């Protein structure tokens, strides 16, 4: 049976019984016992969480947000908004070897997924599961899909009408179209995350059977795809898109291996050695191979390490993860501080909202400052840039905080166990994934409004996926137990967090 090693079982919630007539003492005693249990449960949650995974995921998402806010080189003239990339500056590629942290996001996601799946198997009777846990996987996946899809719904509700409203108010078409596409472009992450989440039970079984040996053929697949992409024949470039799954599923599987305890010996000098080897392999691949130096896509570059991803990102994964594991004791000690832990818990419950809304925040601020006021972003690292960027980042942070305050309630509200049938969950994952993919490709561009893969079609696909999950609960007649009985923790505070 799949378990989550090194994560202790949580104390069970003691539910208060209804007092008998005249049973005031019993009622008081029961209430006191419930409060004591809740306190113990909270303490147990703090001890059982994998703070290392928490910190990696939160830090990585924050760094992604900051990088996306600093990258655009924006100017506006005669109705045309020009958006370049500040990291295209000569020598700035070095920064991307550290700032390209999507490997850490997928690693932490794989670890959190195994922790979460293990929790559900330790509660086999919750929401209709069998003793052996064989019916838990559809219910687990349904809950994960819900947590991924719901934060996108407010984004759709805002951006479906917004471009048409802006055009009606007289805004130039080009900046509106650019902003509308940009608002959906980064949803590629959620589309891919739906896929690897759906594959989690299979990947967990692979690791249970092979104990980490499965990572070698998975990584080799990415190398083979690159070999075919760059050297097989003319026109083979589309083959590279197979690495969207091959590369990121390998990194995700590393997270599963970590949560299963297979990376326990990778610490200290061993971890630093892995980091050094990963850095060396990446440097050699860039120096001798067809790979560009930047780990993010650059305008005008014939090859991107991100779209589609290349195998060199696996070397960057080894470099970054080795460093992180070497620093794990320091990270865990820092995260054990109560103020830090509270901050991490708060952000962990809103990470998808932060990710989904950080680009709309950029669109809003850039629309006012660049399009409305005629301001242009200064040259990277110039004196004007150093003076302007603190104000730029502070303004964006305030705007994003407002968005998170308004829309984060959807992500952070108490979840409900889902008694979904397996076919409904599979259909939901396909529908949600296709909807997110369509938004990634076409965004909310007004010119695509009537296209089947346009924003309206994508919104309907995502809505259908969510509706399948909700309908399945009613069809099966399952009354979900309180979330605390499923997780043993306050809402949104789960061991090995991260939910999305």
UniProtKB/TrEMBL annotation:
Pfam families according to UniProt: Acyl_transf_3 (PF01757)
GO molecular function: acyltransferase activity, transferring groups other than amino-acyl groups
Transmembrane residue ranges: 55-74, 94-117, 148-166, 186-203, 215-233, 239-259, 271-291, 311-331, 352-376, 388-407, 427-445, 451-469
Record key words, sorted: Acyltransferase, Membrane, Transferase, Transmembrane, Transmembrane helix
The organism's place on the tree of life at top rank: Bacteria
KW ATP-binding (keyword) present: no
Chain ranges of the Acyltransferase domain: 51-404
Coiled coil: none
Chain segments carrying region Disordered: 1-26, 479-500
The protein's name: Acyltransferase
Organism annotation: Phytoactinopolyspora halotolerans
Upper taxonomic lineage: Bacteria, Bacillati, Actinomycetota, Actinomycetes, Jiangellales
